[in-house]
Amino acid sequence: MSLIKHAVAAVLALGLGGAAGLAIDLEDTRLLAQPAVSARHVAFVYAGDVWIVGVEGGAARRLTSHPGEESRPRFSPDGRLLAFSAEYEGNTDVYVVPVEGGVPRRLTWHPGEDLVQGFTPDGARVLFTSPRAVYTRRHTQLYTVPVEGGLEERLPIPHAVKATYSPDGAFLAYQPLADAFRQWKNYRGGTAARIWLYDAATHAVEQIPQPAGRCNDTDPMWLPDGVYFLSDRDGEFNLYRFEPASKGLRRLTHHEDFPILAASAGGGRIVYEQAGYLHLFDPSGGTARRLVISVAADLPDSRPRFVRGSAWARGGDVSPSGARAVFE
Fold this sequence. Notes:
Elements: H1 2-21, E1 33-37, E2 41-46, E3 49-54, E4 58-59, E5 61-62, E6 70-75, E7 81-86, E8 93-98, E9 105-106, E10 115-119, E11 125-130, E12 141-146, E13 153-154, E14 162-165, E15 171-175, E16 196-199, E17 205-207, E18 217-223, E19 226-231, E20 238-243, E21 248-251, E22 260-266, E23 269-274, E24 277-282, E25 287-290, E26 293-294, H2 309-312, E27 316-318, E28 325-327
Parallel strand pairs: 4-26
Antiparallel strand pairs: 1-2, 2-3, 3-5, 6-7, 7-8, 8-9, 10-11, 11-12, 12-13, 14-15, 15-16, 16-17, 18-19, 19-20, 20-21, 22-23, 23-24, 24-25, 27-28
């Protein structure tokens, strides 16, 4: 058994040292995720922290540094505040911080997982999802909470996992069911992702049309000229626009190598994550450009070091002759 423990330690030391040898491009960093955009800034998640950079790209600045995970950054309509979800107290709650930086202010206190979706059009409240009042964690519901702090209010929608307001606040585009396609690529089953448009005055809903064989529509974004969203209806996930008045639907991007994984809108533009990079899409011109962003992170988990094998190996076995061992 001692021999196996030493073998595990040696393999892990080599593996971690090898990971440290992988070149991280500090001038054009990859693996930037969960982007958000305002008129002046782009925010994203990298290595579990929230970073911010100008819309022209360049050197990013870290906004959060807690060991817990920070996720889902979203800008206020005026671009002055950034809302995000974080594990500062162990639980995932909603926080806001000025774009200049500073001490994040906690807005929710429930033990359920509160995930930021955005702001109300007037910027006075943060929209988020939470499972706090459902009988099963399979569903979440929509809530808003005042930016200055106060009681949360639940929206009169049965359940939703993603949502965004129309610019005038009269409608809400939301996705009622979770993303099954994250586990099963090209999923076409009964819980395929779809987007519904909710009328706050009449409580009526309208679904963005899908082909007869179903598809997955996700990440709704509402700009003055229509509802933008991601869809795999033509293969890989790309960006589309639906115009509620004319019922017209149009494909806007044509990525075939890797799908668009996440997108959000702000400041009249859309930012999306594709192939590990961030792209800025201009709806007026119908064009996208890849942002070159440099992230100078220390990445402590990637440096070579000795670790205890039992903390990093989940399973193992020894060959019949005892000459080799395999580990997970």
